[in-house]
Structure formats: C-alpha cells, structure tokens
Amino acid sequence: MFRYAVPAEKSHYVVALCCLPDREGTDSFARSAVYHGVIAIDPESGGILRLEWDAELKSTTPLTRSQIVIEYGPVEIAGKTCLCPLRSISLVRSRSVDVLGEWDESFRTYGPYTTTLNDVTFSGYHVFRSESRILQGFN
After folding, report:
1. Residue 22 CA neighbour count, 13 Å, CB half
2. Does residue 94 contact residue 66 with C-beta atoms inside 8 Å?
3. Which domain holds residue 40?
C-alpha cells in the first residue's frame, strides 16, 4: 500500500458542481484541488487493487467533501483473467441553491448542505468484437 499527496502546484484534479446562486443560478463552481490518497498494489502481479483519493477542500467553498474509492479484482473475459474495476464509491458534500421570495421579489441563496453517495458495481464484462468488409466500386 502506498500513500500519496499532491500539492496545489502539481494538481490537475478539478472538483466541480452546479450551481452557484449568482446571477441566474446557472454558474458552475470548479476548482483545482489539493488531494491525497492510497494506492493498493498486488505485490505478486503489480496490478492495482484499490485507488482512493480525497480532495482537501476548504470549509468556505460550496463543496466541502469529495472522496472516491475504486476497487479492482480479477475478472474472466473470454478465458483470460483481467484486472478490472469491480466497485466504485464516491461521496460528495455540497450546498444546494435555494430560491427565496418575498414581496414579489426572489433571489437565490445557498441552501443546506447535502451528502450524496454514489455506489456503483461493475459486472457483465465481455469481449467486444466486430467484423468489417471493404466493398469495391462504391463511391
């Protein structure tokens, strides 16, 4: 297992969400984030078994938590064993946008924080093949 950390000047990881309460409420929030995580490697094969990354976000942003974990494992495809994603979990904590109204006027403001969990299981791996022919004489 290897632990890693990526500083701001080296980060290409962008966290984003829609939307901010500014103007029409259609502006997106996007920011490059410092992050850290863990890579678990099978010592015998060198294959990656697990990836984790956790964005280090400030509590002043509309997005305060972004974590992802991907687990890999052996999958048989057409008689060959491949290392493929088996499960992915992402956790996000962000603010919603609420519209408040009073005296025939309305404005957008931040709503409460909500936590979203996305849990995906990968299955049904199979070989994808196709056949093609080039036909002569067609323009």
Report:
1. 6
2. no
3. 2-121
